[in-house]
Amino acid sequence: MLRRLILRQVSAAAAESKFRIHGFDQRRGIHSRNKKAMEYVAKGWSAIKEVDRVIDYCELNDRRLIPLLRGAKENFELALEADNLNTHARFWLSKLHLKYHVPGACKAIGAALLVEAADMGNADAQYELGCRLRVENDHVQSDQQAFHYIENAVDQLHPGALYLLGIVYLTGDCVKQDMDSAVWCFHRASEKGHAGAAIAYGSLLLRGVQVPESLTRMNAVGVPPPKRCRENMDMNPLELAKEQFQVAARAGCDLGLKWLQRLEQEEKLLLNQEDNEYASA
């Protein structure tokens, strides 16, 4: 009896050990596939960035771009072969089919890949799909679907989606107009360096729009913001607006520079007026 019990325990321990080893090997295999897929994605992304760098100086279907585009397409396809659940490869491959003149491009395939990537939770794909549904379709159902995907991207704090949702709340398009929500969206997008959101946020501050308490008291995850952020919130609206325009300027936005120059000129005029009033008194 004792011998049978010992043998049973040894057998169970061996089975558990085998299961653990198998599970470890399986996880290691998944990690290896993910790593390989991301290497392919990085290569494809680099090729696309090179195309974007020169595409403004040549025709869209310039034959000199074909090797880069073909290489990018092959790398994204290899990434999906290595890891079919890689949403980054699926998203960028969809962009190749939809935007670029790559050999073998197909709009239908691109649209299907984009929807798949969005449904799998890729924030870039959700934002891209939401924008396309709003722009390319005039149906009410498409607007509702677009808002759904944009909100999903906002949940992941995608800067473009935050900016777009801020515009929606600001204008009252599809939703009830909500200035506090608009400012919140612009603020979060500006924190991530979005130039358009920074311009919109700064402009609203100059118009006298108040910063909502949700920004001054709690941050996005429900905890008090850092001391530096609280100090920034206590600044006067003009200084806050200047900070936003500086964000836009650092992002390469000419409008941000123009706003900064305009504010500087107005400050000089006010100083001159004060000096003249003081001199006349």
From TrEMBL:
Gene3D superfamilies: Tetratricopeptide repeat domain. This is Binding protein. It comes from Brassica oleracea var. oleracea. Pfam families: Sel1 (PF08238). One of its GO terms (cellular component) is mitochondrion. InterPro entries: Sel1-like, TPR-like_helical_dom_sf.
